[in-house]
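### Sample
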Amino acid sequence: MSQAHYDVIVVGGGISGAAAFYELAKYTDIGSIALLEKYDDLATLNSSGKGNSQTIHCGDIETNYTVQKAGAVKRTARMIVKYCLQYGYENKFMFAHQKMAIGVGDTEVAYMRKRYEDFKEIFPYLEVYEKEKLKEIEPKLVYDANGNERPEPIVGVGVQNEYSTVDFGAMAKSLVENAKTIEGKTTDVFLNSEVLEITQEGSTHRLTTRDGKSFTAGFVIVNAGAHSLYLAHQMGYGHDYSCLPVAGSFYVTTKMMLTGKVYMVQNPKLPFAALHGDPDILLGGFTRFGPTALVLPKLERFHGNKTVIDFFKTLRLDKKIITIFYDLLKDSTIRNYIFRNFLFEIPYFNKRLFLKDARKIVPSLQLEDIEYAQGFGGVRPQVLNKAEGKLMLGEASVNPGTGILFNMTPSPGATSCLGNAERDVKLACAHLGKTFNQEAFNQDLTD
């Protein structure tokens, strides 16, 4: 069995793993770094252009964000923009689009007006779009199929020219490519290298892969989506956490519809994002509507059923998990939402039900205007916290303090990738007695 030693090994070649790999190479004096990726290319799962809504989530139009969360996410979202501008990726895989959140009906309109007042200090570029302005910049929001104005009041809050859209799969590949150009560093990437087991051996960890390789490292960062918790459990860590994989599906329009991103007010009772429309950069700007939210008993979406067993091992079903499920399902709003999203996956019913919801954004939308986006959507590893008895809505990390981290990053994990990597790379440096160049990092990636 071949083996190699590195100062740090990153497990997972999605956007989060690629960000950690890049920052280890560029902003530390760590000498040798390896990236182990399960499949034959980087970013083939949730980070691919098809696996998410391609959105830089900074909190300006995401109505489920508090002022405090928006302030924190804004910093990490800006890092995405700064990185892409630094290397000239604008209009290659990062694009500026109009974006807004809309309120429809008296209650939502009042909410959006108040939200604008609460958030305009953090996001001074935000504008309020009354119906007359919407007719000019996003007319599909206003008129029905007969050309009549929608009867209910509507208002938008947003911006017309901010970097908002990224192909995170392309960005992940660029991060790895740029890391490998840094001189004086060993930056090795191993594809088709699924990690089957991690064991601790004194001050190091040994990683064994399916292709028969063995690696050791002074520090390990596991960014393997839902499999991060699977590997943590395998080592005896993170047993207070369980994983609920939630798959998101999308529908795409068959012609040009919206000029930018349009989000809706999220129901505060629902733990998942409200339906939104986005110009898809892989589909020539045609609008992609979604996501739906379907709980799937597998850790990966489009790889058959080979991760079903992994799901049950990671779920670790017990009374605490059953209690969390019961508490979620006893609420009729959540229960009906789950059932409706299940119907979104059933042929014939799916398009008709989805069309009804999407018409809240585009009243003129017809059945022939949309089609199910085959192969689009990923799986978010929503974390269940057994100790607190609830579903966690943000990111979760298991840090046993032994030189290994396990990260689970549901939305906005892609947006937060460089900020999360900053946190993890600092931990790696502290553990190894190395230095993180905060000054260079701030100069490149923060304002």
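The first helix runs from residue 15 to 27. This sample (malate dehydrogenase (quinone)) is used throughout the tutorial notebook.
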